[in-house]
Amino acid sequence: MSSNPMQSGAFLHHVAFESAQPERLATFYSKNMDMDVIRISDTEFRAEGPMRRLVAVKGTDKKLAYAGLACRTQDVVDAMRARALSHGIDILDSPSPYFDDKAFALRDNDGHLICFGMAKAQTVSYRAARPGLHAPTQHLTFATQDLPGFKDFYVDKLGFFLADRVLHPDGDPATIFTTTNHEHHTIAAFKSDRTGVDHHSYEAGTFENIKLFCDRFAANGNLVSWGPGRHGPGNNLFVFYDDPDGNWIEISGELETIYDREVMDWPQEPRSLNKWGKAILRS
Ligand SMILES: [Fe+2]
User: Fold this and answer.
1) Cα 167 from Cα 174, distance rounded (Å)
2) Who surrounds ion ligand 1 at CB < 5 A?
3) Which is it for strands 44-49 and 52-58: parallel, antiparallel or unpaired?
4) Distance 196 CA to ligand 1 centre (A)
5) What is the pLDDT of residues 227-254, one digit of tens each?
6) Could you give the residue range(s) of every CATH 3.10.180.10 domain in the chain?
7) Cα separations in angstroms, 131 against 94, 127, 208, 267
8) Residue 158 CA to chain centroid, in angstroms?
9) 179-216 confidence digits (pLDDT tens)
10) Rounded distance from Cα 227 to ligand 1 centre (Å)
11) 17 CA → ligand 1 middle, Å
């Protein structure tokens, strides 16, 4: 039985945000990200598309309700639970509608609810992505006032693989990237003066595909808020958009595949965040 999330190939299956206007939020993703809106109730709407899923539940704008990391085998789910228990982390019920009844949830060091489980079969009414619009939900990044606490929870306790760090000149970490599979990062965190979500990302693979999403956003009157650019850590191409609640969406391409390299340290400077141009430094 593996307790190594790298071996499990766990991946970001879905994100759920609170919103004062959940229908408006889900509709935005539907129009711009080629997803279908599903009304669950007056207070819950889902946007589902090929390999991407976002839940919008009535609540406070920009607050993460939960995120779901799908594991590929039940052994890994069980091992993750045992590993969390061995570190004294409370095991909670999973609220995820996409995971089976053996799933569980943990609250991380900042109180974010992260679900681990096996995805139910056929949770999405699959339809082939339109040409170029293939972009799975790929990573989630937090803003945190406690970056050492983030590293302790995800890397030291849960066993996520530390991919890269961005360091201030005095060695104090500014950003930590962790992964649960072959992709450069699954969950990352920026040092910040606030606590919450920084952004979540969809991996479109290529610049050609990113361009098609940009055309779609533009046709709906939504303009790029940052980019296009290329990150240093992860080497990925990126554009950023704001959704109507102010959540930051990244559409990424060419994200680095890692498997056996050492952790890399990057300096906290604009060129680390954007090799091509202006950066948005969080600390
Ligand atoms: Fe990102």
Assistant:
1) 5
2) 201, 250
3) antiparallel
4) 15
5) 999 999 999 999 999 999 999 999 999 9
6) 4-117, 137-273
7) 34, 12, 10, 38
8) 17
9) 999 999 999 999 999 999 999 999 999 999 999 999 99
10) 12
11) 17
Yes or no: domain 4-117 corresponds to CATH 3.10.180.10: yes
- CA–centroid distance, 136 to ligand 1, in Å, is 13
Report how far ligand 1's centroid is from the alpha carbon of 132 (Å): 20
Q: Alpha-carbon distance 266 to 53, whole Å? A: 32
191, 189, 153, 113: CA torsion to nearest 10: 120
From the CA of 249, how far away is ligand 1's center (Å)? 8
Backbone angles phi, psi at 125, to 5 degrees: -70, 90
CATH number for region 137-273: 3.10.180.10
Q: How far is the CA of 202 from the centre of ligand 1 (A)?
A: 9
Residue from 77, 234, 55 nearest 141 by CA:
234
What is the Å distance from ligand 1's center to 101 Cα?
30
